[in-house]
Design goal:
The structure is a single chain. The protein has 159 residues and is α+β, with helices and mostly antiparallel strands. It is built from 5 helices and 10 strands, in the order βαβββαβββββαααβ. The protein has a single domain, classed as 7,8-Dihydro-6-hydroxymethylpterin-pyrophosphokinase HPPK (Alpha-Beta Plaits), CATH 3.30.70. Strands 1, 2, 3, 4, 7 and 10 form a 6-stranded antiparallel β-sheet that branches. A hairpin with a 4-residue loop joins strand 8 and strand 9.
Length: 159
């Protein structure tokens, strides 16, 4: 079984789209756990706020099949419509593999660049090590949170 970390977000019917997407993960994942959910403002102030969380799970699927399955879940929820994101599921980590191709970068760059990804990852698996940087997620959060929170405010949100 492969250990995966997923970033999950939405800003259109966010609660229902996230719930529906997470339910669909059970078709090909086991031992599913979720971080707390956070609300953040969209970069474009005319857009609704985003809800984001991180999910860890185990899957027997290989990377390509997993990504195809995640895209199918996104499509089932309407993925994108205009300026809104019905559901976005990003593969953040696949085991501790490092991949850098045109099609895929692992670990996902968002893990170190955005508070709405790094904080939930630190909440869910604080002692998991970032495969490239070598810091645990909680160490990375403590190191980068001041800078990340200058650009984005996060608020706990019950899902």
């Amino acid at each position: 079984m492969h250990h995966i970390l997923l970033g999950v977000g939405s800003n259109q019917n966010a609660e229902s789209n996230i719930r529906a997407g997470l339910e669909q993960l059970a078709r090909f994942c086991v031992n599913i756990e979720h971080s707390p959910c956070y609300r953040s403002s969209a970069i474009d102030p005319s857009q609704p706020d985003y809800l984001n969380l991180v999910t860890k799970a185990e899957t027997a699927l290989d990377q390509k099949t997993l990504i195809d399955a995640l895209k199918s879940i996104e499509a089932n929820q309407g993925r994108m419509s205009g300026r809104y994101c019905a559901l976005d599921i990003d593969l953040l980590c696949f085991d501790q593999q490092i991949v850098n191709t045109e099609q895929l970068t692992l670990p996902h760059k968002d893990l170190e660049q955005f508070a709405h990804v790094l904080l939930p990852a630190a909440d869910l698996c604080p002692n998991q090590q970032h495969p490239v940087l070598g810091y645990t997620f909680i160490e990375l959060w403590n190191k980068k949170r001041g800078l990340l929170l200058e650009n984005q405010s996060l608020y706990p949100h019950s899902l």
